[in-house]
Amino acid sequence: MNFKIKTSLASLALIVSIPASAQVLYKVEGNGLKNPSYIFGTHHLAPISVIEEFGATGPFNESQQVVGEIDMTQDQMSIGMAMQPHMMAPADSTLSKVISPEDYVVINEEFKKWSPMPGMDLSMLEAMKPMAVTTIVATGMAASCMPDFNPAEQLDTYFQIQGKTAGKSIVPLETVEHQATVLFDTTPISFQADALVEMLKDSGKAIQSTKDLTEAYMAQDLGKMLQLSEKDDEHPEFMIALLDRRNADWLTKLPTIMNEATSFIAVGALHLAGDKGIIEGLRKLGYTVTAVNK
Which of 196, 263, 280, 281 stands the most exposed, by the fewest C-beta atoms within 10 Å? Predict the structure, then answer.
């Protein structure tokens, strides 16, 4: 899976039999912590049934605060306004100017299959960066692989809203603006355009890649997810910005956050995986991090 397909999967920051160590829920102890905290790897379009299925209900209820990538409890219009400047293309780089007329006709027909509303085509998104359109398409593809997904119960948001309702503090690891910068400003628009064209011209491959990543998540196989994300990487700086740099930044904040109160940390599952992931990062800082089996 090359970067151009992988870009669509990563914007969501998603086969085989389940390994004995497969897990997306971890307990963090030691290194001076008075009480344990928990880390849960999310798939941004997974149904909330995975909370109970993966054994996260108890740890969530025990927590005093909920930690997420951004604060999803704030007004959705405010989130949209913060992201919008990063999603819009310069006047000389709108969709029809960075995609050839021939490709535009072809991908416009495919886009209609994945658009969020009937009758929408690319002309309605002309001023948006290709990566913003890729995110829309990728969301549609991922939702088709998660038939139980309810848009009104998005997993990361659900944790935060339920936490806030229960009187828990909500702690974001970064701002909306920073996340938008990583997603939409890291790669050149020309490369974003190539990625969008390839994804829509070969939607079968993109859908299969999405299915593979989704199945790996439902198997709680972080290693497989990381392997899928790293395969045939053509643009490593994007994944470095999306995962490695953000992980490193979060690891400077998590010790203080966990010292303040028992925390339930819910972030995209790929952030947990690998040598540069949060799990290994916390272990290197001296914490004892163990998988929690239901």
Answer: 280
